[in-house]
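A reminder from the course coordinator: this example appears on the midterm review sheet, so study it carefully.

Given structure:
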């Protein structure tokens, strides 16, 4: 049974809900009959504005004509359209879907128009733009861009527009009486064409009547590095184009820059090879499953869903069956796979004299999920501090596997009376509880790494 993080989806919050009286999550259905695409990836904060309403973007959300996608400083959104086109809206950007009439029976009859109000966006043509190039247009505040079946990146503001081409060709022209914003397709008046074979970019500024070509490396920071840095800040990774994937390479650095970088690197003297000392980190995941009797002696104990044994039975290390874990105990945390139980006889009164407790990691288990399957991870270090007085917590874990490499998990959030703590962000979620005497703690966590990769696991902690 494959798990993927759904922190950006409301139904995921429901899966990870605590006791109904403590936590409740609302589900919003943004699907519309007239949808022309779907959000395939969202990182950071982004919104969809439909008419007078504005809603936080979630993966899987439908988009429609007249919708406006708005990203904040750490926001990044991918939209997969009905004709398999992809548009990537980068941080601090606004993109409006003005028209998207795709004729699946006869793609040559399609009409598509996007409007980049500000910021940076990447457009990879789908069947509509490929078949009806004279009916595709991306407008900007001062210029129109038509395509020749292409993959291009545009940076736009009220004063300037710049564009790079990864594949195909584009035609840029300033708005005029001969190039109206209401029209479709590339303009012929005062137009400049840029193809993938050029090591240049096309730009237009202010009231200049004709776009100009300029070295792509001169503007690398505007279109390439700016997008890449923002994506890195949103905790993503460079993404390679793959069959069946709606995630594409976000690096738009020109071939010339890459060649120059290779020349500079080759000319530099190579430093002497220094072999660092080998540091063996502890693994807090037991090599074999801990005996049920040993786990039952704890105040907190993890029970697993019975179906978990079908795919994870050999990988489970610190869990017992839900039937065993629930005997005489109160349920504290639950999701589709695990339940955390506490031996508290119905009481919710945590020791009122607790102030700040730094817990030590006793044991843990974690898994890396990808399109290739599931792999057990090492849990090499960890910290957990609960401030009962300030009602807050902070934690950190070091995870690793051959497939994922090193993965850092960290979170901070709210502690509530009764011994619960939690955090929910765009890319990760954590739910935990402490024993009534404040000597034990445990939490379940998941973190999204990419569109089809994530990590998840459970922990047990003790007071030092």
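Designed residues:
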């Amino acid at each position: 049974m494959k798990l993927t993080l759904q922190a950006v989806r409301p139904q995921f919050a429901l899966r990870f809900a605590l006791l109904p009286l403590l936590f409740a999550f609302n589900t919003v259905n943004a699907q519309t009959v007239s949808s022309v695409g779907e959000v395939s990836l969202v990182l950071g904060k982004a919104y969809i504005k439909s008419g007078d309403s504005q809603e936080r973007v979630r993966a899987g959300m439908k988009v429609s004509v007249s919708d406006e996608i708005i990203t904040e400083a750490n926001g990044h959104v991918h939209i997969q359209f009905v004709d398999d086109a992809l548009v990537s809206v980068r941080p601090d950007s606004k993109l409006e879907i003005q028209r998207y009439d795709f004729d699946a029976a006869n793609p040559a009859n399609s009409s598509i128009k996007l409007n980049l109000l500000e910021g940076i966006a990447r457009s990879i043509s789908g069947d509509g733009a490929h078949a009806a190039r004279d009916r595709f247009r991306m407008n900007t505040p001062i210029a129109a861009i038509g395509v020749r079946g292409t993959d291009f990146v545009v940076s736009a503001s009220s004063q300037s527009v710049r564009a790079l081409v990864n594949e195909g060709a584009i035609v840029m022209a300033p708005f005029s009486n001969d190039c109206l914003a209401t029209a479709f397709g590339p303009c012929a008046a005062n137009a400049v064409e840029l193809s993938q074979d050029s090591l240049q970019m096309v730009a237009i500024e202010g009231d200049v009547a004709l776009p100009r070509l300029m070295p792509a490396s001169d503007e690398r920071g505007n279109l390439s590095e700016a997008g890449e840095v923002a994506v890195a800040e949103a905790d993503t990774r460079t993404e390679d184009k793959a069959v069946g994937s709606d995630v594409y390479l976000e690096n738009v650095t020109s071939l010339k820059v890459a060649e120059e970088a290779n020349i500079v690197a080759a000319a530099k003297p190579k430093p002497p090879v220094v072999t660092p000392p080998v540091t063996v980190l502890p693994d807090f995941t037991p090599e074999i499953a801990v005996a049920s009797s040993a786990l039952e002696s704890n105040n907190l104990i993890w029970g697993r869903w019975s179906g978990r044994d079908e795919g994870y039975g050999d990988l489970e290390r610190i869990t017992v069956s839900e039937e065993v874990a629930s005997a005489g105990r109160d349920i504290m945390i639950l999701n589709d796979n695990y339940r955390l139980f506490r031996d508290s006889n119905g009481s919710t009164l945590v020791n009122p004299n607790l102030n700040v407790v730094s817990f030590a990691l006793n044991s843990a288990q974690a898994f890396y999920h990808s399109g290739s399957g599931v792999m057990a991870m090492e849990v090499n270090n960890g910290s957990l501090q609960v401030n009962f007085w300030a009602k807050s917590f902070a934690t950190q874990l070091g995870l690793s596997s051959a497939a994922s490499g090193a993965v850092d998990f960290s979170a901070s959030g709210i502690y509530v009376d009764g011994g619960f703590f939690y955090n929910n962000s765009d890319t990760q979620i954590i739910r935990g509880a402490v024993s009534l005497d404040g000597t034990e703690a445990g939490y379940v966590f998941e973190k999204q790494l990419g569109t089809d990769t994530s990590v998840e696991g459970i922990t047990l902690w003790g007071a030092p």
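The mean pLDDT is 81. The radius of gyration is 26 Å.
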